[in-house]
Amino acid sequence: MKESKPSKWTFIIVGGIIMWIISFTLIYYLLIPDVCYYHFNEMNSFMKLFYSAGGADNRHPSPNSSNAIFSFIIGGILGYVIYKKKTTANTVYN
Question: 0.85 cut: is pTM over it?
Answer without folding.
Answer: no
